[in-house]
Amino acid sequence: MQAVEEYHRVRKQRDSKQRDAMNACVVISASLVLLLSLLLSLHIRNDHNEWRWRNRLWWLPSTFSSTSGIAADLLVTNGTIYTSDSSLLFADSMAIRDGRIIRIGNYSFVQEVSGYGTKELNLEGAVVVPGFIDSHVHLLFGGLQMARVEVRGVNTKDDFIGKVKEAVRNMKEGSWLLGGGWNNDLWGGELPSASWIDDITAHHPVRNTAYKLYEVENSILLKVWLSRMDGHMGLANSLALRIAGVNSSMQDPVGGTISRNADGEPTGLMIDSAMKVILSCIPEVSVEERRQALERASRYALMRGVTTIVDFGRYFPGAPLKHSWEDFTDVYKWADLSGRMMIRDVVQTTGRRLSQWIFLGGVKAFADGSLGSNSALFHEPYADEPWNVGLQVTDTESLSNMTVQSDKFGLQVAIHAIGDKANDLVLDMYKSVVSTNGKRDRRFRIEHAQHLTHGSVAKFSEQGIIASVQPDHLLDDADSAVKKIGLERAQKGSYLFQSLLASNTPVAFGSDWPVADINPLHSIKTAIKRIPPGWDKAWNSGECMKLTDALNAHTISAACACFLDDDIGSLSVGKMGDFVILTAHTWDDFITQGTSSVAATYVGGLQAYP
């Protein structure tokens, strides 16, 4: 512990000599930007100034020579280091200076750059992997949800109602009760309705000055919004519906559905772009709350070994574009200018560097909804709703025009597609855009790519489209997929990770947090075993991945998916010294245990967790 404190003390001394030296201004048409996608290296802390010394890293090329005679700041020794670099997959030691790796290999080779002031971290045989990259998160939303009502994992109707009832006790009259994470499949599939919670939220105990509970004669009204775990459906109580003007005569918005009962009355469920009707009535979260959410979420990610994320913002189908820009100016830019956030210093030819810490990665759009909300777009109808094939939440012409124009500006495009028809639609559109704008290294992405038709895998490979997937989603979808699309379709076309990989399709892993937990080690295990809760065998065992392939999907492949592979994603000379120490003490233990966890996370050679 004393060694760590001394290490930070030295960094703080260097901090006093460093100041921000770079600003960039980027003007991008708001009509083209559907989402401010930020690539964030996660480290926010109260003693944030120690990170400013890393300004120099931008000027240090990734081809930095290890033979310059300069002593390393840190030697990491006596471990089993998996590098994700095919030219040297394993090493036992590495040396880091100014945040970048200057040597990696065996101890005698690495020890040559030890000198005055060099610290040594003896791993005592522990396994080390590159810092994990989460290719798809909603960072601020996740941070906000951590402080709200949590109904994730609730598996009965009574428990769901009980959670709401418990939360109501501390609410003020007229306020909004916000939260989410519910999954109706856990309690048999019945969808919740406003009637479940109206009685609870219309009249509840309050505290008097003596802090005793008593009942009041007049109803105390609360407005409620609880989003489903996939973020494509939410439940409002009757008061929230009334305030938003939702009634039997209101038409479904384009790309969304207002759930109704047999009499045509709204049930309280709002699907995809219909959610904006309720969300537009909820007071905007304060700037301070969002800044706290950023810090809260960042610390949580670091605890899970995540050092870089691709942030897809608070965006949902039909949401105002201003949210992304407000989060950028109020939160990310503030964190940048105040030195409270350390961001990867990488200029991408296909994007825009806004500062040495923040990178504008590209744009995102939606093709369809989600399986759990029966709004993912399929070629064939849902088995449990024969009249329904899902929703195309953005019309083809608008989607195509956005992609063409964004691509002309050199922006990377990522499109959400879950159903097989949505994936085919996006794949065909991407091919058309390449034909129109010409060939170049654009690295188009499809986010989720959960259900594919026969032949879609080949399209991914032929076009070089990145499949940005979230393994832990299959755990939530396994049972419901069979009910919703039938056993044959679920078995043949769902979560085809290994098929995509075998076809040489670039596969990048993420979590979609807070839809699923941000936990790379768990998602790697899921990709390897594919055993859903309550199952005794894998869901389509032919799609199980190897450990190293799954690790690469969360490291080097994820870096390639966002044009950061020259600086992060593997433990290689010239790259950033971002690494994770695991509790496993041999590679065999890591393979066989299946329960390894994060012991420590380092960002640029500095300990960020614990």
Automatic annotation (TrEMBL):
One Gene Ontology cellular component annotation held by this UniProt entry: perinuclear region of cytoplasm
Parts of the chain that traverse the membrane: 21-44
Amidohydrolase domain boundaries: 120-605
Signal sequence, renumbered to the chain: none
Record-given protein name: Amidohydrolase 3
InterPro entries from the UniProt entry: Amidohydro_3, Metal-dep_hydrolase_composite, Metal_Hydrolase, YtcJ-like
PANTHER family noted in UniProt: IMIDAZOLONEPROPIONASE, PROTEIN LONG AFTER FAR-RED 3
Species of origin: Cynara cardunculus var. scolymus
Any one of the GO BP annotations: response to far red light
GO molecular-function terms, A-Z: hydrolase activity, acting on carbon-nitrogen (but not peptide) bonds
Keywords: Membrane, Transmembrane, Transmembrane helix
Highest taxon in the source lineage: Eukaryota
